[in-house]
Design goal:
By secondary structure, the chain is an all-alpha fold. Helix content is 88%, strand content 0%. It has helices at residues 7-49, 56-116. The longest helix is centred in the C-terminal third of the chain and has 61 residues, at 56-116. It is rod-shaped.
């Protein structure tokens, strides 16, 4: 290697960073969003059992929580797609390099056979 990063290395690095970012988002925001949703759902069930009207603050809190979860979900999808596309690009560039290397190895083997007199 001549000291520069080759495209497969760059795309594999993008894949790793994207996957780590997605995992950190799931780990940090997932439990908080789940507990918030569970709390709101339990409150709505209690209110329904008591036959009271659900006030607007509770409904707007529930809608905001849904929007936050939807945003997190969309962000994770984008990050995963980025990781997948980066991996595909890395594999594509890697295959081209593999074909070049294989052809060069065959040339060197033929040259070696010629030097040996086989």
């Amino acid at each position: 290697m001549d000291g520069k990063l080759l495209p497969p290395v760059i795309f594999n690095a993008i894949t790793i960073v994207a996957m780590l970012y997605a995992m950190s988002q799931i780990i940090t925001d997932g439990p908080r969003l789940r507990s918030t949703t569970t709390g709101i759902t339990m409150t709505l069930q209690e209110l329904a059992q008591e036959s009271e009207r659900v006030d607007e603050a509770l409904i707007s809190s529930f809608v905001a929580d849904q929007e936050q979860r939807r945003g997190l979900f969309n962000e994770i999808i984008v990050v995963m797609l980025t990781a997948i596309l980066a991996n595909i690009a890395a594999n594509f560039f890697g295959r081209g390099r593999q074909k070049t290397n294989t052809a060069r190895i065959r040339e060197l083997e033929e040259e070696l056979r010629g030097l040996r007199g086989d």
